[in-house]
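Journal club prep — side note

Before the paper discussion, L.F. wants everyone to see what a predicted structure for a comparable chain looks like in token form. Sequence:
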Amino acid sequence: MPVSLHNLANKLIKVKPDEIPAVLLSFLFVFTLMAAYYVLRPVRDAMSSDWTDAELSWLWTLNFFISAGAVLVYGLVVSRVSLRKLVPGIYIFFAASFLLFYIATHWLEDTALIDKSFYVWVSFFALFHVSVFWSFMSDIYSSGQSRRLFGLFGAGASIGAVMGPSIPVLLGERLGIYNLLLIAALMLLLLVPLIFYLDKTRTHIPVEVDNNSDPTSLVTIGGDFFNGFIDFINHRFLLGIGLFIVLYTMMSSFVYFELKNVMVEYDRATRSQYWGMMDLIVNTLAIFTALFATSRLATKFGLAVTLALIPVILVFGWIAVAVAPGLALLIGLQITRRAGNYAITRPAREMLFTGVDRETRFKTKPVIDIVVYRGGDVLAGWSYTALAQGVGLGLGAIAVVAALLAFLWALVAVFLGNSYENNEQHRQSAPEALTET
């Protein structure tokens, strides 16, 4: 690549010349991964309107227990399988699972049980696939590099999330809902060669700041399979990340339930198209923010401001909904929340894991990303059901509750950002500083 293009890339998206091969592979990795997921997501979400709030809450509860068990099994696998085999093996496994779902829909006449099983499984996959990706990224790139590059990867995720739902939107009726599972499985298999090439490239990436990993050593991590749960409980910083995620799920779940109820009157194919179009809008908006704003926010203002930005916006958004409840404001809030999460909040949150050791990245991080997240879903789902059906609160009153939760979310974000900045200063002389409880 000419020097002028190197300079342009560094100026616009802050990528240095010697980082370009690994960054391109990482970008293509997350693009393909998210495209595969967003082929599946509209199919899953279209099913939700067939069930009551209580039924959906029970499915979320079931998903929590399945996720907790799966993370324990994953901890066992991480302890015994080398990372070189672990990451590609995970995506091969999920590709095979969606192929099995496809076969089951053609063998069984009554797909009601298959639909609910698929909903739960995709909900688990929704967190697990991206958690593994970010674990891999935080293991490759240093703290300083993450501030510059993770926003770019967030843009790659958003671009993939734009391309993915375009398939069910444009071809859903022609291909059939269940045939989309085959397309997603093929996309996941395409990740395997990308992962192997990225693994070979990682040893040539210049490391700016120690990220507690030896890039040339990808042997098994070892330890006990339940270490991730113990590590999470014993560290205040990690508990803070867990609380941050729980509050995020409260925001997303409240909006999700409202939208689900509004779409009851539409058939499943129409719902699938609506959810797909919503994904297209959200991820299109997220692309440019992630490309040009996230790295600048993180490097100029620090992680406290970067993490707290979307929660603060949502405080005012929920207040607006409380004052003037309506579908338009609700949709605007959903778009802002999701686009902001993909472009800013999620990449910033992943930067927090560049300062921990490898075992924490691959064992504790899934506990936080999956078990805590789904626990938050359970709490949010039953809380919404209790407020809406038990207490009988309307949208305006629920919005007031959500605004208070968003304010608490912002406070936790500031705590995490400041803690990370302080720990990063200490890590230069004492790498174990982050292990304080």
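L.F.'s comment for the group: The chain has one domain: 12-435. Keep this in mind when we get to the figures.
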